[in-house]
Structure to design on (156 residues):
């Protein structure tokens, strides 16, 4: 392999690694901000103390979590594509008689969206839990209003 080709292949792999790291950061940022926004929606529900507003803000929290999940899926697809693009460069290097498996400890292989399965499960759990504060607050307000209405209808 010519020295220039090797340096170019190394630079291409480095670019892919940088893009993969950026994609993983983007996924985390989406989940983090969805969680923060949903907690803020629960706080807004407490401040408003209105059953209709509480239900609307809970529905908005669900929409935020679903939107975040769709963005995580999108970013994960981009990560999978970037990893498979890096595979092309690794195969080129391997074709030039450089033992990538000896260097990295594993053979280059094509990946699917399952590659980050553990992180995706954690993100899904976090997004599910992000709607719980809004649900608890909205339910408490609805319960308080219905119990208060019952007490007014049936005075002692």
């Amino acid at each position: 392999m010519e020295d220039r080709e090797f340096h170019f292949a190394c630079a291409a792999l480095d670019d892919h690694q940088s893009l993969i790291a950026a994609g993983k950061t983007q996924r985390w940022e989406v989940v983090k901000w969805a969680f923060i926004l949903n907690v803020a929606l629960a706080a807004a529900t407490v401040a408003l103390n209105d059953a209709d507003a509480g239900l609307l803000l809970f529905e908005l929290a669900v929409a935020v979590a679903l939107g975040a999940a769709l963005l995580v899926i999108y970013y994960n697809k981009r990560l999978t594509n970037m990893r498979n693009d890096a595979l092309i460069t690794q195969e080129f290097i391997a074709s030039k008689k450089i033992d990538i498996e000896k260097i990295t400890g594993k053979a280059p292989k094509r990946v699917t969206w399952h590659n980050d399965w553990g992180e995706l499960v954690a993100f899904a759990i976090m997004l599910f839990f992000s709607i719980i504060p809004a649900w608890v607050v909205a339910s408490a307000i609805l319960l308080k209003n219905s119990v208060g209405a019952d007490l007014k209808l049936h005075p002692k």
Q: What stands out?
A: The chain has one domain: 3-153. The two ends are 93 Å apart (CA to CA). The mean pLDDT is 88. Residues 3-153 form one domain.
